[in-house]
TrEMBL record:
SMART domains: C2, GRAM. This is C2 domain-containing protein. It is a single-pass membrane protein. One of its GO terms (cellular component) is membrane. SUPFAM superfamilies: C2 domain (Calcium/lipid-binding domain, CaLB). Residues 1-111, 524-644 form the C2 domain. It is found in: Membrane. Keywords: Membrane, Transmembrane, Transmembrane helix. Residues 261-435 form the VASt domain. It comes from the Eukaryota. Residues 192-211 are annotated as: Disordered.
Length: 945
């Protein structure tokens, strides 16, 4: 016997008023014989609407009389506190219905809920509300044409009672079995054509799940006994798994369900087509499933054949049986039965619901574990490859209340997480997983526009089109016109406008052509001469930094350059710079540029972002805004997709933002960290061991809220000198120095970057240092302000000073601290030296280029025996576009080197041609401005006399 129950809604429910009553959920429990189930909980209403359907298999021993089944429906409120129904729920009312076997389903009816009757209590009439139910009981040999526990028509029109009109009931496609006489085994051979047997009014479902947007109630009957019987679902002869998938594609498909509420066990993108990934996971006798069972220690693994569970709306289902090996959570081997049902299979998207029953575990008869596998198309790549996204979510379905519910959920979660870690590892060995970086950057690679498309977009406007039409019109007029007689001041070859109209038209045409030529020239300068670092791949081994510049929002226009800006962005990190492309005449640019930094030996800490407006090759480039991104203050998930606000007068007034995607990682993983520690060992003179994610490392990351990739190098116990000395611990990593102290519950913690340190020196022992040496750390002006509470003093220049003393081993601690800071400062000095050398080389290249252009024009006659006196004055100036840490040093060294080299180059040697070539001539070449890098430019004034 099969019992169909549809729980539609309830009305007029009553409970005691309380503070939590408005937020409590109301749900209904259904009990039929030995079977139990429940609906989802609806909050915030006394008239809940569930619209959920259930199907139960009733045995002969569960019948009250022949052809009659007792059905009990109870309504509970969560958190009621009277213990009704277990789990702290309050019983609001219940109803008992005796259902007789019917050939056709009856329309839904309202049933009055009855209160609980306590022994010895006086009978009082109490209105507990009503519940709308539709029930039907069918035997195995009845006609199934009318088997619908809740026809839509019965809800839309009431025969007698003024019932409210309910929304249409949506049935999910998760059948347990159907009675189809035409089913055949599809594991071998060909599938028989049975689509002609499907008719619109011939649908029969034996298992229903209440469908909600959040998939709150994936409710199934609590037993699977009898499902595999030959009478319920006969195996089909013939057919392959691929043919079955093709048949499902031809049928109506439900929407892809949402993830289950228990959480996500696995969400990964793989380089494989969705249908191939589906075959790998669910094809009969899949080698992957065999390897997974062997890897997890499962015994007696057996796959039942796939079977059709519906006739006209086919759903595939199969059972998998195995013996799960003992684990830390469950000390003995347990038998498990897993039912796999296809919810959706349209060739591109697949959804499979797995229902796992483990009755031999403690409280195994009280719950079932639900697993939802979703396969969806991933991003496409410019190379033409396709990818698939696999998402596995879970939930647990309790058939009855138990006080061990929390423990069961926690244990199931831990066991599933461990199981699917090995699942992900094995799957990555069969197919290539796609990292989150590649997954997010793939759409940008496809959307990046070429120079030709940008050129057409820049010139496809009204100005250019009207100019071209006007020029063609004038050209056609010239071809069609006859030559006129020479008149006025004209002569042969020199034609003048004859009327003011011709003069005005000619002037307008010249101005329009000049404007178009300026636009083309500006585009060439911006896209060709300026260039871009997009598409340049990173080289080397070490720490890699990839920045994806997606778009900008509300970028300002400079007052000196009216109109829309021509923005481009410069990124700087660890002395290296990358430049984006120039977007012309827009305040909301779309870049889609991917910029990769070459591998760095030092882990990156800060990314400097500068936004400029391009106005030409030698014109002043206006800074529209700037920002600084500290990698230690953001998680990898936040860096992968973030909007940053720009600083600066113009940017703040416009509330400008940039959309970035940043990825930081190392090519060698732990090996890169070990190489860094080996380098530090040589400088410190002491061996440093690599700390894998142990307790100390995790504590260090938790205290200072650091990302998982930040590794602890060493920690020392010391005293922080303030008005009141504070004893704590100093934590050292490759990028930060942190201090933490807990003085009777009063916690003090701060950290700052090594790049923020300007000076570090040792103070000799004295009375103020309690007879021990001390280490003074001075930060740069305006840096490390969040660590201000731990500073000893703040000098007039705005620099914070920290004093650490009372180390257990001062020599060891000071060497380690100064070595870590020295590695960062030396990297900055090397970068400054490279910049200085570039300035000198570019200066002399420009000077020689100008001399080679001018000197051939000035050469006259033979050189005399005696050269007259000649002077060459050169003025050199460094103009800084933004402040840097080594600004003063670079300026001083550049000017000194250029003055010395210029004097050596232009000093008279007694013979040569410079004096003769400049004889009696005074030349003023003006000035030339050369952009050295994104931080400063070089201005050179010449006067040759």
């Amino acid at each position: 016997m099969r019992l169909f129950v549809h729980v539609a809604e309830a009305r007029g429910l009553a409970w005691r008023p309380s503070r939590a009553a408005s937020s409590s959920g109301v749900y209904a429990k259904i009990k039929a014989g030995k079977h139990k189930s429940r609906t989802r909980a609806i909050t915030g209403t006394r008239d809940p609407v569930w619209n959920e359907e259930f199907a139960f298999w009733m045995g002969e021993d569960e019948e009250e009389e022949e052809g009659t089944v007792e059905l009990k429906v109870s309504v509970f409120r969560e958190g009621g506190g009277d213990g009704g129904g277990g789990g702290g729920a309050e019983l609001l009312g219940r109803v008992r219905v005796y259902v007789e076997e019917e050939a056709e389903a009856k329309p839904p009816a309202w049933f009055s809920l009855q209160p609980r009757r306590h022994r010895g209590a006086k009978s009082k009439t109490k209105d507990c509300g009503e519940i709308l139910l539709a029930v039907s009981l069918h035997g195995r040999n009845c006609n199934h044409n009318g088997i619908r526990s809740c026809p839509h028509s019965s809800f839309c029109s009431g025969a007698g009672d003024p019932q409210p009109k309910l929304p249409p009931v949506v049935l999910t496609n998760i059948p347990l079995s159907t009675e189809s006489d035409n089913t055949t085994n599809i594991e071998h051979g060909q599938i028989e054509a049975h689509s002609s047997a499907a008719t619109e009014g011939d649908k029969s479902r034996t298992s229903f799940l209440g469908s909600s947007q959040n998939y709150d109630s994936l409710e199934l009957s609590d037993t699977i006994s009898g499902i595999e019987s030959a009478e319920d679902a006969k195996s089909l002869d013939g057919g392959t798994f691929e043919d079955a998938m093709e048949i499902m594609q031809t049928r109506d498909q439900i929407d892809i369900p949402e993830d289950l509420q228990g959480g996500i066990l696995l969400q990964q993108t793989y380089m494989i087509e969705p249908k191939h990934l589906n075959s790998l996971l669910y094809k009969p006798n899949s080698q992957f499933r065999r390897d997974l069972a062997r890897r997890q220690g499962n015994l007696d693994y057996e796959e039942k054949p796939w079977k059709w569970r519906c006739q006209d709306d086919p759903c595939l289902s199969r059972f998998v049986c195995y013996t799960k090996a003992a684990t830390k959570l469950v000390k003995k081997a347990v038998e498990a039965t897993e039912e796999q049902v296809y919810l959706k299979a349209d060739g591109k998207k697949f959804a499979v619901l797995n229902r796992v029953c483990t009755p031999s575990v403690p409280y195994g008869n009280c719950f079932q574990v639900l697993l939802l596998y979703k396969i969806t198309p991933g991003p496409d790549f410019s190379s033409g490859e396709t990818s698939s996204c696999l998402t596995i979510s879970w939930d647990i379905n309790f058939h009855q209340s138990t006080v061990m519910k929390g423990l069961i959920e926690a244990t199931a979660r831990r066991g599933l997480e461990e199981s699917y870690e090995s699942f992900a590892e094995l799957l990555s060995q069969h197919i290539k997983p796609l990292s989150s970086k590649e997954h997010l950057l793939a759409p940008l690679q496809l959307d990046h526009r070429s120079n030709w498309k940008l050129f057409m977009q820049h010139l496809c406007n009204l100005t250019v089109c009207s100019t071209i039409l006007m020029a063609l019109y004038v050209f056609c007029h010239i071809l069609l016109s006859e030559p006129q007689k020479i008149q006025g001041l004209e002569f042969d070859g020199f034609d003048l406008p004859d009327t003011f109209g011709e003069l005005i038209v000619a002037g307008i045409l010249v101005l329009r052509v000049q404007h178009v030529a300026t636009m083309i020239s500006h585009f060439i300068q911006a896209r060709v001469q300026r260039g871009s670092d997009h598409g340049i791949e990173a080289h080397g081994d070490g720490w890699l930094l990839t920045v994806a510049l997606v778009e900008g929002s509300r970028l300002p226009s400079a007052a000196a350059a009216p109109g829309f800006p021509d923005p481009y962005v410069v990124f700087s990190c660890n002395g290296r710079s990358r430049t984006s492309s120039v977007q012309l005449q827009t305040s909301d640019p779309q870049w889609n540029d991917i910029l990769e930094f070459d591998a760095m030996q030092e882990p990156p800490s800060v990314l400097d972002v500068q936004v400029f407006s391009f106005d030409g090759t030698f014109d002043r480039e206006l800074c529209l805004g700037h920002a600084e991104i500290n990698f230690l203050r953001h998680t990898p998930e936040e860096l992968a997709d973030m909007w940053i606000s720009l600083e600066g007068r113009l940017a703040r007034s416009s509330r400008s933002k940039l959309h970035l995607r940043i990825f930081v990682g190392s090519t060698g993983g732990d090996e890169t960290i070990r190489e860094y520690l080996q380098k530090m060992e040589k400088e410190v003179g002491k061996k440093m061991s690599f700390r894998s994610p142990d307790k100390n490392n995790s504590t260090f990351q938790k205290i200072f809220a650091l990302p998982p990739e930040e590794f602890l190098i060493h920690e020392f116990s010391c005293c922080l000198k303030r008005k009141l000395p504070l004893h704590g611990r100093v934590y050292l990593s490759a990028r930060v120095l942190g201090f933490y102290a807990n003085f009777f519950g009063y916690k003090t913690k701060f950290c700052f970057l090594w790049e923020d340190v300007e000076d570090m020196h040792v103070v000799s022992p004295s009375l103020t240092t309690v007879g021990s040496p001390a280490l003074i750390v001075t930060l740069r002006s305006g840096r490390g302000l969040d660590a201000r509470r731990g500073a000893k003093t703040l000098d007039e220049e705005g620099r914070l000073k920290f004093q650490f003393q009372s180390f257990a081993s001062f020599n060891k601690a000071s060497r380690t601290i100064m070595a870590l800071w020295g590695s960062k400062s030396r990297a900055g000095e090397q970068h400054a030296k490279v910049e200085e050398d570039q300035v000198v080389q570019l200066f002399f290249f420009l000077l020689l280029r100008l001399l080679l252009l001018v000197l051939p024009l000035l050469q006259v006659g033979e050189p005399p025996a005696v050269f007259p006196a000649s002077n060459c004055d050169v003025w050199i100036g460094v103009e800084w576009l933004r402040s840097t840490k080594l600004q003063k040093r670079i300026t001083r060294n550049v000017c000194e080197k250029l003055a010395k080299r210029s004097k050596e180059m232009l000093e008279p040697t007694g013979e040569g041609s410079i004096g003769f070539l400049l004889r009696g001539i005074v030349l003023v070449l003006g000035f030339s401005k050369l952009r050295v890098n994104e931080a400063f430019s070089l201005r050179i004034d010449y006067r040759l006399a």
